[in-house]
Structures are given as structure tokens and as C-alpha cells.
Hints:
This protein is an alpha/beta fold.
Amino acid sequence: MATLKVTDDSFDADVLKASRPVLVDFWAEWCGPCKQIGPALEQIADDLAGQVVIAKVNIDDSPMVPSRLGVKGIPTLMLFKDGQMASMKVGAMPKGKILEWLAESGIGTASAA
């Protein structure tokens, strides 16, 4: 399952009303670290399909949601469960660290790294 492109218009339906946890990556085309973690997020979307949805919000195309959520730097990763933000990390992380963070939140297992 590939990552899900989310916009200002689709955020509530795709993230807040999702039946599964959603990891949202706030990113931009010009952001080097954002591009670095992109492939890891694609792999996690495949590895943990059915457990978590990996969504991407381009802050240039959809500036309202990041502003509403107080995103100050990118990449910012926010984990939403039951319509609420459960956890947030700012900055690029290797795939293993993202998987550890998700495991701490009860998604997947750290051994999946």
C-alpha cells in the first residue's frame, strides 16, 4: 500500500475520521530531509499495511492544515489515533527509528526494522 496524498480538503476525512492510525508526513518538494525519509515511509506503508496509513501533506499545496496544527519545521511526522494527534516528531529519522516510534505507540513491532 503506497502512501496517501492528503490535502487541506481531504484531511478531516482521510486522517481525523480514519478507522486506523494515520502517520502524517508534512513535507515540501524543496526540503532535502523530507526527500530523504520519503523512501522509508513508502517501505513502512508496505510493511505495516493494515496497521497504519502513511499520509503525506505537501505544505506548499495545502498550507491550512499544517498552520492549524502548528507545524513549524519540516519534515514533521504526526501520528493520529481516533481523530486525535497521539505523538509528533520533527526532523528526518532513519526507518528503524520511525518503526521504533510507531512500536512505542502500539503499531507494528520494533523487530520489523
